[in-house]
């Protein structure tokens, strides 16, 4: 029969030595809202890395000036090849820093707010479809309001600095 101290250390609590059966038990002790924030931030990092090229192309398409010869239509594929040809493949990730500054905390705020609201209003039951929509829209609204200044800076950075290239 194991002692309570051994069981607690196995679950991720008390013991923190080289003989502990499980290391990294701090994550198990992390507050659930903080866990939701960290997981959301990791998700925001991954999505930013994945979708930054599309975001860059979208911003450049939106800020294109019509050409002098009358042909003002430039497609996304044409712009993609132009960026890769003139700025290299890594040029598609230009401006990723402002995107990180917005998405990493923004998605973290979204997930932690969603967790807090669910814990506050839905004690031990799953939300209905309507409640899920309300939870998601409320959480997203909180995240958008918190990150609005960063979004403005990100958009201005992309329009002013990235459209020069």
Summarize the structure.
The protein is mostly helical. The protein starts with a helix and ends with a helix. 69% of the residues lie in helices and 0% in strands.
Question: Can you describe this structure?
Answer:
The chain is mainly α. 69% of the residues lie in helices and 0% in strands. Helix 3 packs across helix 5 (96-121) and helix 5 packs antiparallel against helix 6 (129-161). The longest helix has 33 residues, at 129-161. The radius of gyration is 23 Å and the shape is elongated. The chain starts with a helix and ends with a helix.
Give the helix proportion (percent range): 55-70%
Beta-strand percentage?
under 5%
N-to-C terminal Cα separation, in Å? Answer: 70 Å
- Give the ordered list of helices and strands: HHHHHH
Shape: elongated
Low-pLDDT residue spans: 1-22
Average pLDDT works out at 80
CA-atom Rg in angstroms: 23 Å
Instruction: Tell me the number of helical segments per DSSP (H or I, 4 or more residues long).
Output: 6
Structural class by helix and strand composition: mainly alpha
**Oligomeric form:** single chain
> What about the largest sheet?
none
| Number of beta-strand segments | 0
């Amino acid at each position: 029969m194991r002692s309570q101290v051994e069981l607690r250390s196995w679950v991720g609590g008390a013991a923190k030595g080289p003989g502990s059966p499980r290391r990294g038990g701090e994550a198990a002790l992390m507050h659930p809202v903080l866990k939701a924030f960290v997981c959301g931030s990791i998700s925001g990092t991954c999505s930013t890395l994945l979708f930054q090229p599309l975001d860059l192309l979208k911003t450049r398409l939106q800020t294109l000036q019509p050409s002098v010869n009358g042909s003002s239509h430039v497609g996304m594929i044409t712009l993609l090849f132009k960026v890769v040809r003139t700025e290299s493949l890594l040029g598609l990730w230009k401006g990723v820093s402002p995107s990180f500054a917005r998405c990493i905390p923004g998605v973290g705020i979204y997930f932690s707010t969603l967790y807090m609201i669910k814990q506050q209003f839905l004690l031990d039951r799953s939300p209905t479809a309507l409640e899920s929509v309300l939870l998601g829209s409320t959480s997203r609204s909180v995240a958008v309001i918190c990150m609005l200044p960063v979004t403005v800076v990100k958009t201005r950075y992309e329009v002013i600095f990235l459209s020069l290239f």
